[in-house]
């Protein structure tokens, strides 16, 4: 009937069934075992629930997030990017890469996915955040290496490349 009333997860030894309608504890248990950060938002974008992976990422407790606009909990441009993603979804599943700035530390990169969600009488959004930081950093390092090789290849002088210890 085009409604989700349970989620089936394939485990190592057997399938696990998590019912959603009428059973919020099973729903919360399901969200906590998810590896990516995950949140359930109402139709206005307020947090109904966020798993511990996401609360840790944001540096906020569930109590600090619940009932508040999710976008208000995000630093820098991430809030605007998520707001745009929620607006673009409009009843469909949408994804985009989002950067979470962390001040002096390197930024974190995530694929944020938003999907329609209905919990009992509440319509809203399910959001997940899959960490792609390592992939983005590796791509950046690879691009830097290609640029350095291009400079070296086009140099008219002899070029010697050493590491910090002076090893060629």
Description:
There is one protein chain. The model has no long low-confidence stretch (mean pLDDT 78). With 168 residues, the protein is an alpha+beta fold. A hairpin with a 2-residue loop joins β5 (94-102) and β6. The longest helix is centred in the C-terminal third of the chain and has 22 residues, at 133-154. It has a five-stranded antiparallel sheet, with helices on both faces. A two-stranded antiparallel sheet has the order 1-2. The radius of gyration is 21 Å and the shape is elongated. Helix content is 33%, strand content 32%. It has five helices and seven strands, in the order ββαββαααβββα.
Q: What are the defining features of this structure?
A:
168 residues; alpha+beta; five-stranded antiparallel β-sheet; two-stranded antiparallel sheet; 5 helices; elongated
Kindly summarize this structure in a few lines.
With 168 residues, the chain is an alpha+beta fold. The chain has helices at residues 24-33, 52-58, 62-65, 78-89, 133-154; strands at 6-10, 15-19, 37-42, 47-50, 94-102, 105-119, 122-131.
Strand-helix topology:
Blueprint: E1 6-10, E2 15-19, H1 24-33, E3 37-42, E4 47-50, H2 52-58, H3 62-65, H4 78-89, E5 94-102, E6 105-119, E7 122-131, H5 133-154
Antiparallel strand pairs: 1-2, 3-4, 3-7, 5-6, 6-7
